[in-house]
Each structure stands twice: as C-alpha cells, then as structure tokens.
C-alpha cells in the first residue's frame, strides 16, 4: 500500500480514547448487555461512524453496533463483516485506565509507574523483541489496558474511515459489528445475523503481528452440585457427610501433573475448576472443560465424573448432580469447508508485507459461535498482548498493520469476485 492507513486516520488516537471508557462485562449479571456501561463506548462508536459518513450506523437494545459501508463495485461481491468486542475482561479492573505511550521503545523492561511491582519484562514477553523502535502502549499499573479488544475496534474504525475517504478502492458491501459481553461468553447471544446480512466475517481479536487463527478449543462447562448430610456437629458421629469435604476430596483427586491449564499447552486440553460455593449441606463446584476435539471433551467429562463417583463411595448417604453445559465448538469444523475465507486473509497479511502464521487458539472468540451460527469467521491479529492483566500492551505499528490488512482483504474479495 502507498499510504499508512493507521497513522493517516489516527488509529493510535482512537485507541487511546476508547480504552479510557470503562466497559468491563459481568459474568454474574443476567441482563443484556451484562453491564450498561458497555454502551458508553458503543454510543460513541455510532457517533463516530456517522461522522465518517456511514449513515445506517446504530446501537440496538442489546448493545450491538451495526453499520454498513455500501458496495461501490459493479461486481457481485460477497458481503464481508469485520467484528470486534467492546467489553473488557472481568478478571482485572478496567476503571480509570491511564494509557501510556512508550515512544520508540528502546528494548528495556517497562516498569509501570502506578505500581512498581508491575514490570513488563522482555524475558517474559518474547514478542517484545520484535518491537524495538516501535511505540508501545501500556496501562499505568493498576488496571488492564483494554487492547483486548479495543485494539480491534480502533483498527476497524480506522479502516472504515479510510475506505469511505478513498472511493477509488473498489469493494463489495462491508458490514461492521461491535459486540458486547464476549469476555463472559455471551458475545453472540443476541446478534441478529439476518439484519447483519453478511456472507463471511473476520474478528479482529488476535495477538501477534501476522497471525491468523482458524481453530479454537471446543468448550463445555460442568456444574456439580453436591448434596451432603447435615446435622448438629455435637451429635454428628456416624451421620454427618460434609459437602465441603466431599468437594475438597474431588478437587484433591484431580491430577497434579496433567489435565490442568498450568500443566498443558499446544493441543492438550484440560479440566479446570473455576468456582466453589456452598455450606456443609450443599456445595456447587464449577468447571470448564477444554479440548480441540469434541471426543476429547467427552473423555475429560467422563474422567471427572469417575472421580466424583469414586469419592462418593466414601459418602454413601450423599448425592451429586453432574451437569454438562455446551459452550462453544472448534470453528475449524466449519472453516475447513470455506478455504477461501482463510486463504484470502493469509494473502491480505502478505500484501501488508508480513509473513503470515496460521495458529490455533487455546480459547474461543465470537468467531467460534458465529461460524456455527452460519457465518464462517476466522480471527485476525489485532496486536494485543498479555490480555486480562495489568501487564497488557500493544504496539501502535501493529495496530496500523492490522488496519492495512482489513483494507487488503476487501480489495482481494472484490478482485477475486
């Protein structure tokens, strides 16, 4: 490309503005969106989209932003959507974010000023070694930054403005979708795909420059309710079966050197307890189960159920309810049937002067669910790193390249139609 899209339309300035708006989602909320404050950013995005010249931009009652850049090509081009989520993780505070720009970073560890214990060490963040001389954005040490996924939001906004201002770039209709509640697993719960009207989509929510993700974990949750036998502790001999101790025995029986997030990587799945709550009469244990194959999920669920059954042999008067809740599935199962969707994205990355790298995600994205809802949707890098933590960082130059990839993609779809 002859122009630097990101700097031309201030992707950095957009990003710095967006991260200062608190959009943390809440897994315990039953509303849609889970927090009303997510709409604060979404309303701003609608205003900015309309100011760019995108007339149909709007925010619906569920917190989704929809917008369309009309086609300007005489060809019949598939309708492509670019998607990012506005919420930030509930794992770390997103209130009062103070973004800091470390211009022309010199390669040394980055100490965050508001908490001296928070240091982004080069030895612990290998992707930093490629960033010397670039402009690194961090938070100040007391909050996350919000690059996950406001980097993607800023990149889509920058690319949208570039396309509107450069009608010589021929393209089909382009849809923009900003979702709430991705971080709590509900990012597509109320999306209206008929209204969206896209044929294919791309989430801008990946990590390292040049990466494209077409594969995710498959995911289930397991909820175990333990019903013990409660009685007065002074008269409990031979009667009391404490649900808290039953839960402790179940957790203690989990493998110490395998099947956990802290002992697995690559294509290895895991069984991960996430919450314990209750009293001696009744305890609830929550788990997440992850594997790249559904068969692997079922094997791990059977393994966990066997542990529960073995533990219960020592508590003959107690009972357990074991419930499996499907969460999402590996988008590879869908994307394998749409090779051009992934292939065009790889070519768009190459045209940006970057060597592409196809990766799998040890997690999920909105693209996982969108793919199974009928909208094939791989995940393109946004440049975010160390997400869900106070050490989160992003490179301005990586965000600019991501915006360039968006422009390249719409060109490729038009040229090949």
Would you give an account of this structure?
- It is a single chain.
- With 417 residues, this protein is of the alpha+beta class.
- Helices cover 30% and strands 22% of the residues.
- It has an 8-stranded mixed sheet, with helices on both faces. A 4-stranded antiparallel sheet has the order 12-13-11-14, covered by helices on one side.
- β5 and β6 (119-120) form a beta hairpin.
Summarize the structure.
This protein is α+β, with helices and mostly antiparallel strands.
Structural features:
417 residues; alpha+beta; eight-stranded mixed beta sheet; four-stranded antiparallel beta sheet; 11 helices; globular
Q: Largest sheet, if any?
A: 8 strands, mixed
Strand and helix order: HHHEEEEEEEHEHEEEHEEHEHHEHEEH
Structural class: alpha+beta
Mean pLDDT: 95
Secondary structure tally, helices = 11
Backbone shape: globular
Q: What percent strand?
A: 15-25%
Secondary structure elements and their pairing?
Elements: H1 5-8, H2 11-19, H3 38-52, E1 58-59, E2 65-69, E3 80-85, E4 100-102, E5 110-111, E6 119-120, E7 136-138, H4 147-165, E8 174-179, H5 193-196, E9 200-206, E10 211-216, E11 218-227, H6 243-252, E12 270-278, E13 282-291, H7 294-312, E14 319-328, H8 332-335, H9 339-351, E15 357-361, H10 366-372, E16 379-381, E17 393-395, H11 396-415
Helix pairs in contact: 2-4, 3-4, 4-11, 9-11
């Amino acid at each position: 490309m002859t122009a630097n899209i990101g700097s031309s339309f201030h992707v950095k300035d957009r990003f710095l503005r967006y991260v200062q708006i608190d959009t943390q989602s809440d897994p315990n909320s039953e509303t849609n969106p889970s927090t009303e404050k997510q709409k604060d950013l979404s309303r701003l995005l609608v205003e900015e989209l309309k100011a760019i010249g995108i007339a149909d931009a709007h925010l619906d009652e569920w917190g989704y932003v929809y917008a369309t850049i009309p086609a300007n090509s005489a060809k019949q081009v598939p309708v492509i959507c670019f998607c990012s989520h506005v919420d930030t993780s509930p794992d770390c505070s997103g209130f009062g974010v103070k973004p800091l720009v470390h211009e022309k970073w010199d390669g040394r560890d980055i100490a965050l000023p508001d908490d001296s214990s928070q240091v982004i060490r080069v030895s612990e963040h290998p992707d930093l070694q490629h960033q010397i001389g670039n402009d690194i954005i961090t938070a100040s040490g007391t909050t996350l930054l919000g690059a996950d996924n406001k980097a993607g939001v800023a990149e889509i906004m920058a690319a949208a403005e570039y396309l509107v201002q450069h009608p010589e770039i021929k393209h089909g209709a382009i849809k923009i979708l900003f979702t709430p509640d991705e971080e709590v697993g509900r990012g597509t719960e109320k999306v209206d795909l008929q209204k969206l009207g896209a044929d294919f989509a791309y989430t801008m929510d990946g990590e390292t420059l040049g990466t494209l993700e077409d594969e995710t974990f498959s995911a289930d949750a397991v909820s175990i309710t333990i019903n013990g036998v409660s009685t007065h502790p002074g008269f409990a001999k031979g009667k009391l079966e404490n649900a808290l101790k039953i839960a402790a025995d179940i957790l203690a029986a989990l493998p110490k050197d395998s099947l956990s997030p802290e002992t697995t990587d690559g294509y290895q799945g895991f069984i991960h307890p996430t919450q314990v709550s209750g009293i001696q009469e009744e305890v609830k244990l929550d788990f997440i189960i992850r594997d790249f194959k559904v068969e692997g999920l079922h094997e791990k669920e059977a393994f966990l159920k066997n542990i529960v059954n073995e533990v219960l042999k020592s508590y003959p008067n107690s009972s357990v309810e074991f419930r499996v809740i499907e969460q999402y599935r590996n988008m590879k199962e869908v994307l394998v049937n749409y090779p051009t969707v992934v292939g065009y994205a790889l070519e768009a990355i190459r045209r940006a002067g970057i060597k592409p790298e196809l990766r799998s995600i040890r997690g999920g994205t909105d693209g996982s669910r969108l793919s199974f809802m009928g909208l094939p949707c791989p995940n393109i890098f946004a440049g975010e790193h160390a997400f869900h933590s106070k050490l989160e960082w992003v490179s301005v130059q990586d965000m600019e390249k991501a915006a360039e990839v968006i422009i390249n993609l719409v060109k490729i779809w038009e040229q090949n139609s």
